[in-house]
Amino acid sequence: MLACSTVHQILRRHGRIDQDARAAHKPFVRFEHEHPNDLWQMDFKGHVLTERGRCHPQLTVWLMQLGTGVGYSRPYHPQTQGKDERFHRTLKLELL
User: Fold this and answer.
1) Which of 10, 14, 36, 52 is surrounded by the most beta carbons within 10 Å?
2) Could you read off the pLDDT of 10-56 as tens digits, one per residue?
3) Of 48, 43, 46, nearest to 84 (Cα)?
4) Neighbour-count burial for 4-38, b at 16+ CB within 10 Å, e otherwise
């Protein structure tokens, strides 16, 4: 396996790295906040079967009524929802 630096040197040597595009690239920034609970992340899982039947959470409406800002990520991209996916796995394993 080649090191990233080796691949980079080979691509640069053969003129395959556009310096303008490289300068425009912005480093990845984590969504960290100054204080705990400044940002909450959740995912709509769909209905959950309970002893009393199906439960259909309508969380967005409730959060907006409380004055909470709601943002959305791209659907069907679980890699952007790591914390939520881990929660769903634990919920399914432990409770459902």
Assistant:
1) 10
2) 988 998 888 777 777 777 777 678 888 887 777 666 677 888 888 76
3) 43
4) eeeeeeeeeeeeeeeeeeeeeeeeeeeeeeeeeee
Q: What CA–CA distance (Å, rounded) separates 71 from 66?
A: 15
Helices (H) and strands (E) counted in the chain, each on its own, are 4, 2
pTM: 0.39
How many whole angstroms separate alpha carbon 4 and alpha carbon 7? 5
Residue 68 to residue 60: CA distance in whole angstroms: 9
* pLDDT digits 0-9 by tens, 74-88: 777 766 777 777 777
Q: In whole angstroms, what is the distance from residue 83 CA to residue 43 CA?
A: 9
Residue 96: name the closest of 62, 58, 45 by CA.
Answer: 45
